[in-house]
Design a protein that fits this description.
Length: 287
């Protein structure tokens, strides 16, 4: 499959394939073998039609047995155990849950017993954080010093509310993490060229991010009165404001909407779609 990479991104995600399951990883994360991560694509699953083939949502009308099989396949490919996988319950909030051992399997092997959770953090090895996407922005956080991780869902609402800052705050409080030691990544999501927003949304960003009033690369107005918004840049600014070193930040280099055959995109499919997932785990120690 021909992938349309973003021309402005110097280093982009790597394409991995195992037993027919295709997923994406960050080259910059490879120097930390204690962490396991990946981002799914549409390829390698068993779902049909608008869900084809690797749909990872039980809530969008797909057959439950197909989604379960898709989870088994992606877990085997990326290399984590579904018993320890824990899902978010995303509603565009900045609420964060510290995942505990008893949360293992929630959202995949057993029902969720919490709601309105857009961010997950943990320092327990073997617990895999799972968040869902189809254009919104995934945020990955790795703290190799305190051996802790975080994974969040940040659409325009979460980005305007600075989900990245909330995640770093939660990791500082729970694990003693320091921004200067954290490695962060922005995940596959909608690019500026594809992301038209209304004046209402644009005004929120102009207010929340003063630099957006000057940077065309952040947001610009078009002749039709609409705006093009760059959520990758907005989240980069949040990371930099909070003190994550620039060289610790990775970008996807791939847009969901520019690659509708490889990735699920809400915009490209007009809402007829499955979900992609991001995964992040502290590997269980080998004993
Ligand atoms: Zn695009």
């Amino acid at each position: 499959m021909k992938i349309k990479w973003d021309k402005d991104t110097e280093e982009h995600m790597a394409v991995q394939e195992k037993e027919g399951v295709v997923y994406l990883t960050y080259p910059a994360f490879e120097k930390f073998p204690q962490f396991c991560h990946g981002f799914s694509t549409r390829l390698g699953g068993v779902s049909q039609g608008i869900y084809s083939t690797m749909n990872l949502s039980f809530q969008r009308g797909d057959l439950e047995e197909n989604v379960s099989e898709n989870y088994r396949r992606i877990a085997r490919a990326i290399g984590f155990d579904l018993e320890g996988a824990v899902c978010s319950q995303q509603t565009h909030t900045v609420n964060i849950r510290q995942v505990k051992k008893e949360d293992g399997g929630k959202g995949i092997l057993k029902p969720l017993d919490y709601q309105d959770i857009d961010g997950l953090i943990t320092d327990i090895p073997g617990m895999t954080l799972v968040t869902s996407f189809a254009d919104c922005v995934p945020l990955f956080f790795m703290d190799p010093v305190h051996n802790a991780i975080g994974l969040a869902h940040s659409g325009w609402k979460g980005t305007a509310a600075r989900m990245g800052r909330h995640m770093l705050g939660a990791m500082k409080e729970a694990f003693g993490s320091k921004s200067s030691e954290i490695y962060a990544a922005i995940g596959p999501s909608i690019c500026q060229k594809c992301y038209e927003v209304s004046q209402d949304v644009a005004e929120i960003f102009f207010r929340e991010f003063p630099q957006s009033q000057k940077e065309k690369h952040f947001i610009y107005r078009k002749d039709n009165g609409k705006y093009q918004l760059n959520l990758w840049r907005a989240n980069e600014i949040i990371f930099l404001e909070e003190g994550i070193p620039k060289e610790h930040i990775s970008f996807p280099g791939i847009c969901t909407c520019c690659n509708p055959e490889l990735l699920f995109s809400h915009r490209a499919s007009k809402g007829k779609r499955g979900n992609l997932s991001a995964f992040l785990e502290i590997r269980p120690s080998m004993e």
